[in-house]
Design brief:
Chain A has ten helices and ten strands. Chain A has about 250 residues and is an alpha/beta fold. Chain A has a six-stranded mixed beta sheet, with helices on both faces. In chain A, strands 2-1-4-5 form a four-stranded antiparallel beta sheet, covered by helices on one side. Classes of the chains: A alpha/beta (about 250), B mainly alpha (about 325), C mainly alpha (about 290). The interface between B and C is large, with 46 and 48 residues.
């Protein structure tokens, strides 16, 4: 398996418009790829089509050499793909801890019958998951928020919880949609180190949509630039920054 | 490091919290056991009625409060359970205890049927309308199946016993009902304090995000509605024994609104709320006089009041008093 | 064999007119506030009882009594929306559904307390005759009900399309935010539309009471049929509500005669379930979009 995620000429057409226009790219395990581009360039749509929340009009999407463009979101997630959402998508009624536990849903081995009968195995699985979730929150230095309902947390805190939720199940592919929005500088630095360690130690492939250029430059192995749904650059950060087409897309014609 | 120390003590603190929650499931029923010695027939009947409404409320709350779906099909499960028990007893001569599980299973089947629209993406008001129509269709079926159900006149449920132990005494029904109600509450509690319960709330709060965590939302719709149908169906079998008579009019819109009152006054999404609601709502008509229409008026006003003033129901008030009333969806470290 | 069809269609249209006005009244409320009023059936019932009170109780002739009943329900609908719905409009759908149901419950309880299980009927202000139109029998009921409903529909049409008020209504129906931006008092609009919906429902109730017994439970019957008509015609479509109502009435009669009498009762239930499963937007509704 050469690449973790591979998009082959993927197009997403809405009405008369190509939200994603014939995009091909690949992400290797342990690679951090930033996805940047002006507003409306199709970045979130690209994420949606990978996670199954949007239907591609044509093209193929392969995850670990398996075609996933026809799978439903939960089936794709079950294969080890996790994401965060642009506008934040925590489960407001659950506590931070319970949100992370929700992220561990696929990892907890408790069958229905075992649950109902209160079997030792089911309870042990639940308890282990709870301990793991608490630990994860501690590692991200938000352990003290564990038992607060998610809707009571501040924007930045919610973002962090959402990221913990996404990485809890040790996904193979992680898609972060503007993770740094609303995060104070110390948190951003923390986020950067988390992303880097996930990529290096767990060989997680990471796609990050981000507008904060500094973050992009710091963490990415490659930068993918979208404009009007099409890929106009796919190169290491320094190269992409100097790319004429990229500059034009952001700044308009000189 | 101080952080670790804090985490340690927090972990042990939360370990003791669930324990107090669990104990009450066993202690409270034990405390109730001697009651039949002090209550007269009528009071015992009301208590039995409350116990019957516990699984009905619990099941309804799982779908409306936890899963967050406007499935107005509860009364269909209730009626189906009741008629299943009644028909098995009247036509096949089965003893009551043998009809409890079949009633639950029929309810579960109906729950699966009710999940079909949800699986097809029917949501919110449309789901409510559809399940309302489904409930009315069921009622029409009871009315039209005279050969089986006695039609609009209803059918009598024969007296039964539990291996020789009479079940026509209110005090005897009490013990059986207590066991069933407690079993339903404990089982549902286990269900909700697990990944299943979390999945329900996740689906309610943000279905897309839930799927993104690998939760097979379709399967959980079916699970939630099937579980609801199951326990409400069991409540239906309790109805058959308690009331001794089944008629289609017992399972109409008015009954549905009573069940709504139970979960709204008690507290949506709260297991404790379902129990509290069952107590409050069932006891209320007995406190007020027996004028036809009065009940409806009171329930209507209660629901209006709750929505405006106490949207999370009585359980939210009680939660401030004692943690056992607080909803938690995990086991504790 | 199919000779009965014209007769069935005609009497189906007559019932369908009732369904149409009820469905229309519910659609007006829905378009104004996107709330499905689960208590609307009980508003229809209240309208019927109001008409009864003003005729049999106070002794007014039919037409003024009807106008008063419509006025009373208009005020009730307006008050209900302002006091109970508007405050929770941005909240969960469940609360809105429950609030509507609860208010309906209160109305029904009050009606039952006052009149219990007495069988009441609204006295017809016209002779109960029938006419023969070729092979078709037309009762006076059919004619009066259809005429009244058509008049109401015509009046609504004129107001909606040709009057300045109608332009305001159209604007708000299209976009509430846009309407607010051009200075329309959208909140007042909500109340007025609920009042209108209640009044229309009351008209349906009064007409229904002409040839059916008044009972506190007629609301549930009406609600389900109103929903069926709305679903068939397409949720949120005013024309759909009318067409759906007429179609429902005709289908009930045709299926009831040619297939089984059961369909007189269950057509509404079956239509609701099937349409929502197979084509949720009905005939004229729009498919709801889903965005991530």
């Amino acid at each position: 398996m050469a690449s973790l995620l591979e998009l082959a000429e993927v197009t997403v057409r809405y009405g008369g418009l190509n939200a994603v226009d014939n995009v091909s790219l690949s992400v290797r395990p342990g690679e951090v790829c930033a996805v940047i581009g002006p507003n409306g360039a199709g970045k979130t749509t690209l994420f949606n089509v990978v996670t199954g929340n949007a239907q591609s009009t044509s093209g193929r999407i392969l995850f670990r050499d398996e075609e996933i463009q026809r799978l439903s979101p939960h089936e794709i997630a079950a294969r080890g793909v996790r994401r965060t959402f642009q506008l934040g998508a925590l489960f407001g009624e659950l506590t931070a801890l319970e949100n992370v536990l929700a992220g561990l849903h696929t990892e907890i081995e408790s069958g229905l019958l075992g649950l109902l009968l209160g079997s030792r195995r089911a309870r042990a699985a639940e308890r282990a998951a709870t301990a793991e979730a608490r630990q994860l929150l501690e590692l991200m230095e938000i352990g003290h928020l564990a038992d607060r309902p998610a809707r009571e947390l501040s924007g930045g805190q919610q973002r962090m919880v959402e990221i913990v939720r996404a990485v809890a199940s040790k996904p193979r592919l992680l898609l972060l949609d503007e993770p740094a929005v609303g995060l104070a500088p110390p948190m951003r630095a923390h986020l950067e180190s988390v992303i880097r360690s996930l990529a290096k130690e767990r060989q997680t492939g990471i796609l990050v949509i981000e507008h904060a250029i500094e973050l992009v430059m710091n963490i990415s192995d490659r930068v993918i630039v979208l404009n009007y749904g099409a890929k106009i650059a796919d190169a290491p950060p320094a190269e992409a920054r100097a790319n004429k087409a990229v500059l034009e897309a952001y700044l308009g014609h000189a | 490091m101080s952080g670790e120390g804090r985490a340690e003590s927090r972990r042990s603190a939360s370990a003791s919290r669930p324990r107090s929650g669990r104990l009450i499931f066993w202690l409270a029923p034990l405390a109730l056991l001697p009651l039949p010695l002090f209550l007269n027939q009528y009071q015992q009947y009301v208590l039995n009625l409350i116990l019957m409404y516990v699984p009905v409320g619990v099941g309804f709350n799982v779908v409306v409060g936890n899963l967050g779906q406007l499935a107005f099909s509860n009364v269909a499960f209730f009626g189906l359970g009741g008629y299943t028990a009644g028909i098995l007893m009247a036509k096949l001569g089965l003893p009551w205890w043998a009809t409890v599980l079949p009633a639950g299973i029929m309810g579960a089947v109906a729950g699966c049927a009710a999940s079909v629209p949800a699986l097809r993406g029917v949501r919110s008001f449309s789901l409510a309308i559809m399940t309302l129509a489904f409930g009315e269709l069921m009622r029409w079926t009871y009315i039209r199946s005279e050969w089986l159900t006695g039609g609009s006149m209803g059918m009598a449920v024969p007296a039964s016993d539990l291996f020789g132990w009479r079940l026509d005494l209110e005090s005897h029904k009490f013990y059986v009902f207590l066991v069933l109600a407690v079993a339903v509450v404990i089982a549902t509690d286990r269900l909700l304090r697990s990944r299943v319960g979390r999945a329900f709330i996740a689906i309610k709060d943000n279905e897309v995000a839930a799927a993104a965590m690998g939760v097979p939302t379709g399967r959980y719709y079916v699970l939630g509605l099937a579980w609801s149908g199951f326990v409400v169906g069991i409540g239906g079998s309790m109805y058959a024994l308690l009331v001794g008579h089944l008629s289609p009019d017992s399972f109409n819109l008015i009954e549905l609104i009573l069940e709504f009152a139970i979960i709204m006054v008690g507290g949506l999404g709260s297991l404790a709320g379902s129990v509290v609601g069952a107590v409050v709502i069932t006891a209320t008509p007995e406190i007020f006089s027996n004028f036809p229409g009065f009940e409806e008026l009171i329930f209507g006003l209660l629901i209006v009041l709750v929505i405006l003033v106490l949207p999370r129901g009585l359980a939210s008030l009680l939660a401030r008093l004692h943690p056992v009333f607080r909803d938690r969806y995990y086991e504790g470290a | 064999m199919l000779m009965m069809t014209p007769q069935l269609v005609v009497s189906g249209i007559s019932t369908g007119m009732l369904y149409a006005v009820v469905a229309l009244s519910m659609t007006v409320v829905y378009k104004a506030t996107t709330v499905v009023n689960f208590g609307h059936g009980d508003l229809v019932m209240a309208g019927a009882y109001a008409a009864f009170v003003f005729t049999a109780g106070i002794g007014l002739p039919f037409v003024p009594a009807l106008v008063l009943a419509l006025g009373a329900l208009f005020l009730f609908g307006l008050a209900m929306q302002r006091a109970l719905i508007e405050p929770i409009l941005t909240g969960p759908h469940l609360s809105l559904a429950m609030m509507a149901l609860a208010v309906g419950n209160v109305l029904r309880g009050a009606a039952r307390l006052e009149w219990g299980n007495e069988t009441l009927m609204l006295a017809r202000p016209y002779p109960q005759t029938s006419f023969l139109l070729g092979p078709i029998v037309l009762t006076m009921d059919d004619i009066v009900i259809s005429a009244v409903v058509l008049l109401l529909l015509l009046a609504l049409f004129v107001v909606f399309h040709l009057s300045p008020l109608g332009k305001v209504v159209q604007a708000v129906f299209q976009t509430q935010r846009g309407a607010a931006l051009v200075g329309i008092n959208v909140r007042a609009f909500h109340g007025t539309m609920w009042g209108t919906g209640a009044a229309l429902g009351a008209a349906g109730g009064a007409l229904l009471a002409l040839n059916t017994a008044l009972t506190p439970d007629m609301g549930a019957w009406t609600l389900v049929r109103g929903f069926a008509a709305m679903t068939l015609g397409g949720f949120g479509s005013l024309y759909g509500a009318v067409v759906g109502g007429l179609l429902l009435g005709i289908m009930e009669k045709l299926l009831g005669f040619y297939v089984s009498t059961a369909f007189i009762d269950i057509t509404a239930y079956v239509v609701t379930i099937v349409v929502l499963l197979v084509r949720p937007q009905g005939l004229f509704g729009r498919v709801a979009g889903r965005s991530v």
